[in-house]
Design a protein that fits this description.
Blueprint: E1 5-8, H1 13-24, E2 29-33, H2 42-48, E3 55-58, H3 64-73, E4 78-81, H4 88-93, H5 95-115, E5 120-126, H6 149-167, E6 172-178, E7 180-182, H7 201-210, E8 216-219, E9 231-232, E10 234-236, H8 237-250, E11 256-261, E12 267-268, H9 269-280, E13 286-289, E14 298-299, H10 304-310, H11 318-331
Parallel strand pairs: 1-2, 1-4, 2-3, 4-5, 5-6, 6-11, 7-10, 8-13, 9-14
Antiparallel strand pairs: 9-12
Helix pairs in contact: 1-8, 3-5, 5-6, 7-11, 9-11
The structure holds nicotinamide-adenine-dinucleotide and uridine-diphosphate-N-acetylglucosamine.
The site of uridine-diphosphate-N-acetylglucosamine has 21 residues, from α7 and β8.
């Protein structure tokens, strides 16, 4: 019998796609999420995709009793830990909430895992830990430097995981630094459903495409990049999901892995807007505006470690990311509240 994997934050954007990837690989999962930033209706969508979890538990990773009860009920093969808060601006306004949720929550989870003798974890980190990178593409050995409280919580968790592995080499730990996940499941059943005004580029573009917002504001056209707009490394969330499967497999024996997950290709805001409009046949009106505070000119991954250590490479290109993001948004104008 295959032991289940625990996915914390499994009803969220990346967690739900990862649940599908694990189901496709015949891997049973249990999902724990407090639903602070996701909908329980995600579970109905997972069921339609044949990816229902063995169990869904609505609980908080800071709740030790709930974690202990769950670890007593199941013998887990490992944990994929997505649960966390991720809005940069909110983290500046509410740093203690971010530290409590992301850092205390992660430490609480690690302690519960240790008590239960489950010492295999894949952790969601972010390219934000590179701050303003000196060189692109960014290798995993680059200097780490958080520029906001959210980024600092990721760095603190990374530090805790490194210290833990040094103290107790029985742990298998994969720190995955995601670049910019976008796109959606090709069925249109799963995707990104941000609350309020989207902070990130792709959900903003899809809302402009729907007519829910009048135009996209491009944050800065005077960067030292080929067309002056910001350059990022967008990767399809379906590819990101399979990266987690690859990381779990790579942790068949205890080790510490720190790996970038990106495509290695830099894409500018203008290229993204043009590609989206071309692929989907929907115009995206935009206006050039000032830079967003805290933004960097260019950020894209050095990807050799993912190839070498995980045997993982992304499969989907930018056109496919745009097509899938638009299918999701146009089929789900009210996000997960849209009737199936
Ligand atoms: P998301 O908000 O869609 O998913 C996170 C999930 O965790 C949500 O369902 C939320 O309800 C849950 N959660 C939050 N705090 C919790 C707690 N204390 N206890 C239990 N559940 C809790 O976000 P996502 O985009 O799927 O991101 C997943 C992870 O990846 C996060 O840790 C995020 O910081 C990291 N990450 C995301 C991106 C990105 O661009 N989306 C980039 C880099 C890293
Ligand atoms: C943001 C976060 C980062 C986080 C990442 C993934 C900030 C400062 N950084 O980074 O910590 O890890 O999301 O969740 O919030 N853009 C526009 N108009 C918009 C929105 C974005 O022009 O309305 C531009 C941005 O200036 C940037 C690019 O689009 O050049 C991508 O932006 P975004 O999707 O927010 O991602 P990041 O800036 O990489």
């Amino acid at each position: 019998m295959t032991l289940p994997i625990l996915i914390t934050g499994g009803t969220g954007f990346i967690g739900s796609h990862t649940a599908v990837a694990l189901a496709e690989a015949g891997q049973p999962v249990v999902i724990l999420d407090n639903l602070c930033n996701s909908s329980p209706k995600v579970l109905e969508r997972l069921a339609k995709l044949g990816a229902s979890p063995v169990t869904f538990v609505q609980a908080d990773i800071r709740d030790s009793a709930a974690l202990d009860a769950l670890f007593a009920r199941y013998t887990f093969a490992g944990v994929i830990h997505f649960a966390g808060l991720k809005a940069v601006g909110e983290s500046v306004a509410q740093p203690l909430r971010y530290l409590d949720n992301n850092v205390s929550g992660t430490i609480n989870l690690l302690q519960a895992m240790d008590r239960a003798n489950v010492r295999r974890i894949v952790f969601s980190s972010s390219a934000t830990v590179y701050g303003d990178p000196v060189h692109v593409p960014i290798p995993e050995t680059a200097t780490l430097n958080a520029t906001n409280p959210y980024g600092r919580t990721k760095l603190m968790c990374e530090d805790a995981l490194r210290a833990l592995h040094t103290a107790d080499p029985r742990w298998g730990i994969a720190v995955l630094r995601y670049f910019n996940p976008v796109g959606a499941h090709e069925s249109g059943l799963l995707g990104e459903a941000p609350n309020g005004v989207p902070n990130n580029l792709m959900p903003y573009i899809t809302q402009v495409a729907l007519g829910q917002r009048e135009y996209l504001q491009i944050f800065g056209a005077d960067y030292d990049t080929p067309d002056g707009t910001g350059v990022r490394d967008y990767l399809h969330v379906r590819d990101l999901a399979t990266g987690h499967l690859a990381a779990l497999r790579a942790l068949d024996e205890p080790k510490l892995l720190t790996i970038n997950l990106g495509t290695g290709r830099g894409v500018s805001v203008k290229e993204m807007v043009d590609t989206f409009a071309r692929v989907n046949g929907v115009p995206i009106p935009y206006k050039l505006g000032p830079r967003r505070p805290g933004d960097v000119a260019a950020c894209f991954a050095h990807t050799q470690q993912a190839k070498t250590l995980l045997d993982w490479e992304p499969r989907f290109d930018l056109a496919r990311m745009c097509a899938d993001a638009w299918r999701w948004q146009s089929m789900n104008q009210q996000g997960f509240d849209t009737p199936l």
